[in-house]
Design goal:
about 400 residues, 18 helices, mainly alpha
Length: about 400
């Protein structure tokens, strides 16, 4: 599926660029296309190099967590749940602990911490994978959960809205939480149908209710705060928990007799190797995405959707935020730029600006995550991972639009 999709990106870009040149009279169409491809190839390497430090730091800490047995403690705590969701993963396997840490970082909106933990989890799941070039059921479920993970504290979005001068930066907090929950639910539902997982199992239901209770309590506590204070508290809590996790890992390792400095350095060395490994995969995907974007394909799709909605008499106010939605599955930096441009053009407190920020915070860069995580372990055949990830994205985007009309119109 990924082979066909990747090919289609370039074919669509070529056809639309031909249209711009021959019909639209844009003689710079092909020079711009070629420039975009080369720029994306360069950006792929820059992203990989930029990841080296972050990967090295967190993989170093994860090495300490593994040596000290802390990862196993987390794995045992979630063993009943994952034994139902991932029956092929043995109870207490280190991958379950890494998955837990990755999910926690995603929930706090800490992307820099989540990526190295996610790569580590994927590597550990790869050890159990009997067909090394093909994604296993457990790897697919993990990737979809990762790309659709509930963001409890959307630190980045709240900070952007504050910097842009929003009158109520935290106004998007509740609709964003509901939208990202919808993304997670439909992503998990899609995988469970294909993999025949019973989501109504008592164990899964018990964990789901406990998780919902924690989220509900946090939402209740944060919503009682004034808007500006809520933004500050959300940011402070998220970063406090991040630093607390670092200190806990180090102290736990030291208490268990782990040579924390030496093991940290040993784990950090893996960061460089992983960053180099993913370069070819990033080059392949980002050049295709760059070609698609500069060809005008995303703009064309946005206008097409607008005409369909108008034909049925629907409100098209959401269309101004669609560039963020269309870019989000492909590029985090690209969708962030689209969001900021929408806020700048229409106003941070406008319907389009508010919707763009909710979309940005409730969905994930599915193609990027798939490329990085599977590329790190050499998987070429992704099976239903991409389709389920995109289902989660679409669910999050649709939920964001519906909730925005409900809350702000």
């Amino acid at each position: 599926m990924l082979n066909i999709l990747w090919l289609l990106f370039f074919v669509i870009a070529f056809v639309l660029t031909c249209y711009q040149w021959l019909i639209g009279g844009n003689h710079q169409a092909f020079p711009e296309l070629v420039k975009s491809i080369f720029d994306m190839a360069k950006l792929s390497v820059e992203i990989s190099i930029g990841l080296i430090g972050v990967l090295a730091f967190w993989l170093g800490l994860l090495k300490i967590a593994e040596k000290s047995g802390l990862v196993n403690v987390l794995a045992k705590a979630l063993a009943p749940l994952f034994s139902k969701l991932m029956p092929e993963v043995p109870q207490g396997h280190p991958a379950l602990g890494s998955i837990s840490m990755n999910m926690a970082a995603n929930m706090l909106g800490l992307d820099n911490a989540a990526t190295p933990m996610g790569i580590r989890a994927m590597e550990q799941l790869q050890e159990l994978n009997p067909i090394k070039d093909t994604a296993s059921n457990a790897q697919i479920l993990f990737l979809v959960l990762n790309t659709s993970a509930v963001t409890i504290i959307p630190i980045t979005i709240l900070l952007y809205r504050t910097q842009m001068g929003a009158a109520d930066p935290a106004a998007v907090f509740l609709p964003l939480l509901l939208a990202t929950s919808a993304s997670t639910f439909f992503g998990l539902l899609a995988v469970s149908i294909i993999q025949k997982i019973n989501l109504f199992n008592r164990v899964i239901a018990a964990y789901a209710l406990g998780f919902a209770g924690i989220i509900g309590t946090l939402v209740w506590a944060l919503m009682r705060l004034p808007s500006e204070q809520m933004t500050q508290v959300s940011s402070a809590v998220g970063n406090f928990l991040l630093v607390l996790a670092i200190v806990v890992i180090l102290l736990y390792g030291w208490r268990k007799g782990v040579a924390v400095y030496e093991d940290f350095v040993e784990g950090a060395k893996e960061g460089f190797k992983v960053a180099i490994t993913i370069i070819p995969y990033l080059v392949a995907m980002l050049t295709a995405i760059g070609a698609l974007r500069v060809s005008g394909a995303l703009e064309f799709l946005s206008k097409f959707l607008s005409k369909i909605v108008s034909a049925f008499g629907g409100d098209v106010a959401f269309v101004d935020a669609l560039p963020t939605a269309l870019m989000r599955p492909f590029s985090g930096s690209g969708s962030r730029a689209m969001m900021l441009e929408t806020m700048e053009t229409h106003g941070v407190d406008s319907f389009a600006g508010t919707l763009a920020s909710i979309i940005q915070g409730s969905t994930e860069t599915t193609f990027y995550v798939l490329t990085v995580y599977f590329g790190a372990v050499g998987i070429n055949k992704v099976r239903h991972a991409l389709a389920c990830g995109l289902i989660a994205d679409v669910a999050g985007i649709v939920a964001a639009i519906i909730l925005s009309y409900w809350f702000f119109v």
